[in-house]
Amino acid sequence: MAEKTGVKVKESTGYIVFKWFNTAIMILVCAATLYPFLYLVAQSFSSEEAITLGKVSILPVGFNLETYKSVFEKGEFMHSYKNTVVYSILGTILSLVFSCCMAYPLSKKELKGYKLLTKFVIFTMYFGGGLIPNYVLMMKLHLVNHVAGFIIPSLLSTYYIILMKSFFAETPHELEEAGELDGLSPIGIFVRIVLPLSMPIIATMILFNAVGYWNNWYNAFLYLDKKEMWPVAYYLKTVISGASTSADPGEASAEKMQIAANIRSCSMVLMALPIICIYPFISKYYVEGMMLGGVKE
């Protein structure tokens, strides 16, 4: 407004100092956040000698692709990668559907048993059956060495349900009443009115669940004994362990020593790359979902 009227507002000295200080802090935070990842990328492309001597910073030294070639040439890696894609897509879709079906009714205080159901959901956040009872249950349900054995244990998160419940509770009640007057059923109101208005929280949940399933190796460790069913996270964990144990100079060739030196960095880069590529497309919805879901008037 000041620019349109031709009036220039003089900034105070304190405000100028604040802006410069703020900028400097943000630059330091960004540098501290980016440096570890840039270091991993550089290390994954560097030679074993450069890594051993500590010459690698944020640029590769002794550029090589031996580790990446070794990983990609193995059929097990690509098969595990495909498994992870399938598990992540199925798990994210199912988790989103079940979370929505549970969170939306809980957002209605007129629901019979509202307080009891809410307390029961919160109770599960703090108390669980434990590892052995969970494993026995999976055995009894015949879900060990089954895709469902990987997906179901992480299907519902109490935190995600509460987050979605808070967001759904802020949907204008007048819109739902208008839907009722138009003859929509409760399911129709949810699908045709509530969901289109809830894209920020939906995108947030897609990101959370996709990242969770993509990085999940623990469920595979517990419930998947067949190697052909392993996700890439668990496969790379076993490769890293194998590379570490084969790094003895007296037993390993130069190529194996090279792979053992930077395979950790290579695996981390390969694991993080898909999520890094997807995040920019949904970051706007992610921020909106996190903020709108927790603000109450």
Automatic annotation (TrEMBL):
Transmembrane segments: 20-42, 85-104, 116-137, 143-163, 193-214, 259-282
The ABC transmembrane type-1 domain, residue ranges: 81-282
Stored Gene3D superfamilies: MetI-like
Cellular component GO terms held in the UniProt record: plasma membrane
Keywords noted in UniProt: Cell membrane, Membrane, Transmembrane, Transmembrane helix, Transport
Membrane topology: Multi-pass membrane protein
Gene Ontology biological process: transmembrane transport
CDD domains documented for this protein: TM_PBP2
Subcellular location: Cell membrane
Thylakoid in keyword set: no
Principal location listed in the UniProt entry: membrane
Range of residues in the leader sequence: none
InterPro entries: MetI-like, MetI-like_sf
Family: Belongs to the binding-protein-dependent transport system permease family.
The protein's name in its UniProt record: Putative aldouronate transport system permease protein
Organism (species): Treponema bryantii
Source taxonomy: Bacteria, Pseudomonadati, Spirochaetota, Spirochaetia, Spirochaetales
